[in-house]
Amino acid sequence: MTGASVIWHVRCRPDTSPKDYRHVLDLLTDFTPQVQPLPPLAALAQVRGSLRLFGVDAGELAARFRVRALVQAGVDTHIGVADTWATAATASARVGRSGVLHLPDHRAVEHFLSPLPIQALHGIGPAQAGQLQRYGLHTIGALAAMDETVVCRILGGKAGRTLRARARGIDPRAVAVRKMPESASESFGFDRDVYDPVLVRAALLDLAVILGDRIRARGQTARGLTLAVRLAGGGTAERTKRLPQPSAHTEDLRTGTLRLLDAMAFQRARIRCLTLTAEDLRPAEEGPGTQLSLDHAREARLRLEPVIDKLNARFGHRVAGPAAAYRKAS
Questions:
Q1: pLDDT digits (tens, 9 = 90+) for 197-216
Q2: What is the pLDDT of residue 17?
Q3: Domain range spanning residue 210?
Q4: Nearest alpha carbon to residue 224 among 246, 250, 254
Q5: Looking at the domain assignment, is residue 32 inside a domain?
C-alpha cells in the first residue's frame, strides 16, 4: 500500500458501443496521460500526477470525469479509486448510486474488502472461489488472514500468492500506458456459397485452430472473439463475445466461436466467407494463473496441445488437430 489512492478502474455500461468506449478513453486522456485500455468496457488510469493540477483528491476528480463522460460521450461509468489495480477493480463493481467508490487509505481498503464474498475479489475465477469455499474461506477477509502456505496448497503457488496478496490490498501491477491491445485475424473463403452447417462449423474450427496455434506461439492469450460472416449477395453479419477467462487453448476458442455462430441464428443462410478475430491479446503471464479444473478429460486434452503444436511446427499446419476441421469445403 502506498498510502495515497491514485488508480482509477473505470467500467462502462454493458451496452456501451465500441465507438463510445473509444470516446471514453479519449476523455480519460484529458485527465491523465497514463491510461491503459481494458477492452471491451473498462480502463485503468493513474492519476497521481493530475491531483495537484486539478487541486482535488482522486475521488473528487473521478466524480468530475464521470460527469464529463456522461455529458460528452453519453456513457454512464462506474469508477473504483484505490492505490492498486485489483482493489480499484473490485471497488468499481460495487460503487452504489454515486458511481464512484473512493478508498483513500489502507484502513478503508481493509474495511471494504474484508466482508465481501470471496468471488467478489477481482481476478478470482469460479473454480478457485469454489475451492476456497470448500475449505471454509467464504470472504475476502478470511482469505487475507489465512496462512500463505495453506492458500498455495489449495490454489497452487502462483495463484495462491497472487490472490491472497490481492485480498490484502496488495497488487504490484502498474498502469501500463499503451494503445488498444492488438488482435489477430484469420479468414476462410468458400469457393461457392455454402449453407451446409457441418462445413461451416468445420471451417470455423479450423480458424480457431490456426488462431490458437499463432497466439500460443507468441506467448499470448485472447480475452475475446469476433466472428464476421460475409453472406451471399454481399451482406455481412458480425458478433463479438468476451471469453470467460483469457485463453489461447483451441478448445476454448472453438467453444466461443461456435457460440458466436449459434447466436447469429442463421436459417440456411448462404455463406461466402468467415473471419475470426482473437481480440485483446495479452502476454500469457498476465493474470493470477491457470484456473483449476475438475474435468480430467479436458486436462488431458490440454496436456496434448503442446505436443500437437510441436508436430505442426515441424511438419506444417494441420498435420495434427481436431478431426472435424478436416471437413471443410474445398
A1: 899 999 999 999 999 988 88
A2: 81
A3: 184-327
A4: 246
A5: yes
